[in-house]
């Protein structure tokens, strides 16, 4: 069997290693450059590779192809493979067949990283032999090749789910759905929604689907489509018979006749959206039969995720907050919604077709000044110039942070929550967040 891997990054190299171990003849092809450390790993495993090209006669003779999530379906080489009827699958799909471990698959437009990390934290604190993979850390394939976990918590993007055919998680979580990455879905929101729901397409009556009952796109899909999985909803707005909800200042769970309650003030994460993330993760923990005491402790000592509403420093009584991971409007909505003092907002980058109007009421209520950090800020300026007293344009992080320092007064917040991708001025959102933190520390 010949396995061709398109993309020589984390998921590609992991898949190549697992493929080799399972007896495939493996070839890795990357149209860009493969990083030196990945090349060394491939050489060490004696796996053939190429970069900065796709040699068609070495690719089109594959029995199966694993495509890295970053490569679109429209790529010429992918089109040719599909025309020839060669299966093109994701790392998750390829790997799942080689492990008997339980998997918890978590997807959503926002909140999936926090929910994934919190779920992993809950299971690990309970002493389970658990791995963390998907969009985070070491690839799922690499871990299945080299580790022996009983359970995996997987953060799954819509791109990874698009390449799944038979994969089924024992527990699936959909945190929420809002328009994102529509450039990859023919600008049709329904295509993107359908992609997220692939997470439950193979589930049966022994599996579970945990979801946000307040989310319009999710509710509509569930009214018009069927899943065999047992449904576990969570809600901020109404009481759930079999699920999770907030009752005044208490988070309450009733799942398969097991009750659990905890004061929201005892949970380390702040903000309404984080209450939802906590309900999702705790629902998983309850289905996995984790002790209530362990759940309580874990929810109160969880540290949160880097670049997601991360408190950096307080300087002269101004709190600097790094939310660089907010790469779409919906994520920034949650960030602004959780601000409870006047805020200087740093926003901008590569716009993915953003509609800023849904932020209008929050900006009016909470934002005293806007600092635009991007190469093209026209849409942001058009949207908000009449709403805030002060708007400044900058083209690097140091200027953004210094300007914010001059504008902010005692008791204010300075929030980096860009609502955009980072590729105009930074390598990625981590680089953007790290530059923000470095600039704040240098004030």
UniProtKB/TrEMBL annotation:
Matching PANTHER family: UDP-N-ACETYLMURAMOYLALANINE--D-GLUTAMATE LIGASE
Listed pathway(s): Cell wall biogenesis; peptidoglycan biosynthesis
Keyword Cytoplasm: yes
Intracellular or extracellular location(s): Cytoplasm
GO CC annotations on file: cytoplasm
GO biological process, one term: cell wall organization
Identification of the protein by name: UDP-N-acetylmuramoylalanine--D-glutamate ligase
Keywords: ATP-binding, Cell cycle, Cell division, Cell shape, Cell wall biogenesis/degradation, Cytoplasm, Ligase, Nucleotide-binding, Peptidoglycan synthesis
Reactions the enzyme catalyzes: UDP-N-acetyl-alpha-D-muramoyl-L-alanine + D-glutamate + ATP = UDP-N-acetyl-alpha-D-muramoyl-L-alanyl-D-glutamate + ADP + phosphate + H(+)
Main localization, broad class: cytoplasm
Keyword ATP-binding attributed: yes
Upper classification of the organism: Bacteria, Pseudomonadati, Bacteroidota, Flavobacteriia, Flavobacteriales
Residues annotated as domain Mur ligase central: 106-284
Family classification: Belongs to the MurCDEF family.
Organism: Flavobacterium dankookense
GO terms, molecular function: ATP binding; UDP-N-acetylmuramoylalanine-D-glutamate ligase activity
Binding site for ATP: 108-114
HAMAP family in UniProt: MurD
Domain Mur ligase C-terminal: 307-420
Enzyme nomenclature, EC number: 6.3.2.9
Function per UniProt: Cell wall formation. Catalyzes the addition of glutamate to the nucleotide precursor UDP-N-acetylmuramoyl-L-alanine (UMA).
InterPro entries cross-referenced by the UniProt entry: Mur-like_cat_sf (IPR036565), Mur_ligase_C (IPR004101), Mur_ligase_C_dom_sf (IPR036615), Mur_ligase_cen (IPR013221), MurD (IPR005762)
